[in-house]
Amino acid sequence: MNATGPRRRWWPGSVRARTALAAASTAAVILVGIGWWVHRDVYRESTQIAEGQAQEQLLALVDQLEEGVVPVRRSPVPYEVVATGRRAAVAYGGGMEELDPGTRHVLPAPPKAELPAPPDDGAAWGYTTIPMRIPARHDSEPWDRFGKDGGTYPVMYDDVRADELSSARAAALGVTADAQLRVYVVVLPHAGADIAETITEATDRRLLRAGLVSLVLIAAVTYFAVRIALRPVEAIRVLTASVTASDPRERVTIPAAGHEITALATTINTTLQRLDNAAAQQRRFVADAAHELRSPLTTLLASLEVALAYPERTDWPAAATTAARQTRRLQALTEDLLLLARLDTRTPTTGPDPVDLAALASQLTEQYPLAERPLTLTCDSTAPAHAHGIPDEYERLLRNLIDNAARHAAHRIQITIRNQDAWVVLTVHDDGPGVPAEDAERIFERFVRLDDARSRDDGGTGLGLAIARDLAHRHQGTLTLTPRTLGACFELRIPQAPTSAEK
């Protein structure tokens, strides 16, 4: 059994070679088109030359007949002069002798002249061109103009009236006074084509040599030009190859010239910066998660070890209460971490039915436990506020905002919901100490807690606001901290969903 290797492609793999081959192929097509056009143009010019030569000969023959001169046989083009009342031709030449017109004319005689002659309208001299069949010959020679089979050729002719000539001139031509002479001139395109063929062949040879040299030069110039143009790309490739996940700090050098390579280098640097930021954020997230998990675990472990070391002096209900509280804290932190992981990997989705955020906020207000602290929680809404989304995720978002407000509020929390243009605007405002302006965006980062929150025993894990903002972005909305004179006010803006009545 013969093993067959991978089939090799004829198209080169290098960009430089591909571009050079493409440029050479394009140039070859253009040169072939130019050569074809030159060839056709030479033949067209040769045909025009043959027609012009025949026209000049026709005019000269007519002038000779009007002077009473019988044209000579030597002529650059075939011609024949025939007249009414004559069996033989008046004159012929230029190759017509090959058809033996001495005893009988070859081309048809004209009709008799109209008597009296029509008045001269002073029109310019003109002639008529018609296709005519030349009789075939059985004894033609290879060098005969018409060949053995004759053929059909364009023939120019013009008439000369004998009554317009003097009697002496008519007698010199051998025609009667009432006869009409017709001058035929045969147009031989191949006569001019023979010359054109010689010129075309010489031109084709020169074009072929020049074309081959041009193709080689074009391919070489294109190859080296692309090679020079791709040097910055090769430098970018070498540098980006050294970038690793653990050290994405390398940056490519941006060329001074403003062209596509500059845009590519800028884009790559931006991508590397995003990777660096993501790696740094991931390292920070892992460190913060480890720190947050270590604190309750340490407290839980210390409590259990003390209880086990001194079982007779341990307040077991208090130890169990402490263990349960730290376990709940671990459970909440783990759930938040899992939710953030899911939000990072899931794409935004919308629920099948709109969610009434006003009804949801009112329900949470009624069910929220406020027994531990003397706080007042109110909800103000004037109309239903519908938005597309998942009800559980909206509930988690609102609960996180209320939890954050409850940890910092002094006496009251106010929830307001309004329909504003095409948005549902929900605000959660507390009367606590507020947030410094420089921390307005930092509080939405993961595991960020301000100093006053860290000093509390019931302080959060620093993930609530980060989860709330991610849920807002997941529903094509925004969550921001709006400036207030007293306390902190978080504003949620979600695209409004049309109700069934509005549809």
UniProtKB/TrEMBL annotation:
Entries under InterPro entries matching the protein: HAMP_dom (IPR003660), HATPase_C_sf (IPR036890), HATPase_dom (IPR003594), His_kinase_dom (IPR005467), HisK_dim/P_dom (IPR003661), HisK_dim/P_sf (IPR036097), Sig_transdc_His_kin-like_C (IPR004358), TCS_sensor_his_kinase (IPR050428)
Q: Which GO terms describe its cellular component?
A: plasma membrane
- Per the UniProt record, which EC number(s) apply here? 2.7.13.3
Taking every annotated instance into account, which residue ranges of this chain make up the domain Histidine kinase? 288-498
Entry keyword set: Kinase, Membrane, Phosphoprotein, Transferase, Transmembrane, Transmembrane helix, Two-component regulatory system
Q: What sequence ranges are listed for the domain HAMP?
A: 227-280
- Where are its TM segments located? 20-38, 207-226
Q: Which PROSITE patterns match?
A: HAMP (PS50885), HIS_KIN (PS50109)
Report the principal subcellular site. membrane
Recorded GO MF terms: phosphorelay sensor kinase activity
Q: Which reaction does it catalyse?
A: ATP + protein L-histidine = ADP + protein N-phospho-L-histidine
Where does the record place it? Cell membrane
Which PANTHER family has this protein been placed in?
A: SENSOR HISTIDINE KINASE TRCS, SENSOR HISTIDINE KINASE YKOH
Record-given protein name: histidine kinase
Lineage runs:
Bacteria, Bacillati, Actinomycetota, Actinomycetes, Kitasatosporales
